[in-house]
């Protein structure tokens, strides 16, 4: 028999098998995700209720309020240092207190930005939880993997919340009737907020 001849066929007529062909198991290819369960989210996980999401936001916002105390002090200083001449109506401002007021305003801004970056980008990106989400027992995850999204994508998701506010804030209400309880930002970013107590 020469090496150029066809190999013998199977006695049952199946023909030769290609050695590069993919082998399937005894019962064929496995099924995909069960109907109704998104990929990446483990079976039995529930999407966070809108009330829990609002509660988490309120907690995060309440924590930020003290960061604006220097701003309030600065605004009070600026308004108390202004004097209006009753004859000419011209306003004069004490420059010494204005400089201190500006420093306090900048301090307030820096404190808030540091809190925002740490809580919403770094902490939420690495763990899936902001402080408020941790208290409420809800977690932000990537829809494809079920894992936290990372700091960069968490920041981009915060920017995507602009979409939620554009049409009269309807994007923030969208989870009330959406099957996956997603805001517009969640849909664009491919994220879910799920019930998962911090533990």
UniProtKB/TrEMBL annotation:
The chain crosses the membrane at residues 57-78, 98-118. The keyword Cell membrane applies. Residues 1-29 are annotated as: Disordered. Keywords: Cell membrane, Membrane, Transmembrane, Transmembrane helix. GO terms for cellular component: plasma membrane. Its main location: membrane. Residues 48-189 form the RDD domain. It is a multi-pass membrane protein. It holds the Pfam family RDD. The keyword Transmembrane helix applies. It is found in: Cell membrane. PANTHER family: PROLINE-RICH ANTIGEN HOMOLOG, PROLINE-RICH ANTIGEN HOMOLOG-RELATED. This is RDD family protein. It comes from Nocardioides piscis.
């Amino acid at each position: 028999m020469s090496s150029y001849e066809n190999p013998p066929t199977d006695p049952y007529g199946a023909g030769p098998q290609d050695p590069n062909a993919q082998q399937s198991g005894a019962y064929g290819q496995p099924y995909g995700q069960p109907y109704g369960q998104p990929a990446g989210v483990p079976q039995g996980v529930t999407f966070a209720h809108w009330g829990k999401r609002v509660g988490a936001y309120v907690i995060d916002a309440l924590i930020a309020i003290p960061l604006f105390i220097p701003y309030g002090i600065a605004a009070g200083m600026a308004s108390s240092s202004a004097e209006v001449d009753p004859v000419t109506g011209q306003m004069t401002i004490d420059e010494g207190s204005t400089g201190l007021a500006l420093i306090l305003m900048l301090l307030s801004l820096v404190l808030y930005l540091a809190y925002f970056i740490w809580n919403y980008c770094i902490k939420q990106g690495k763990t899936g939880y902001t402080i408020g989400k941790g208290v409420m027992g809800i977690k932000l995850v990537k829809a494809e993997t079920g894992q936290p999204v990372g700091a960069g994508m968490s920041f981009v998701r915060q920017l995507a919340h602009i979409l939620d506010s554009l049409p009269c804030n309807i994007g923030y209400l969208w989870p009330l009737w959406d099957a996956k309880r997603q805001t517009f930002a969640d849909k664009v970013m491919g994220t879910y907020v799920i019930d998962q107590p911090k533990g």
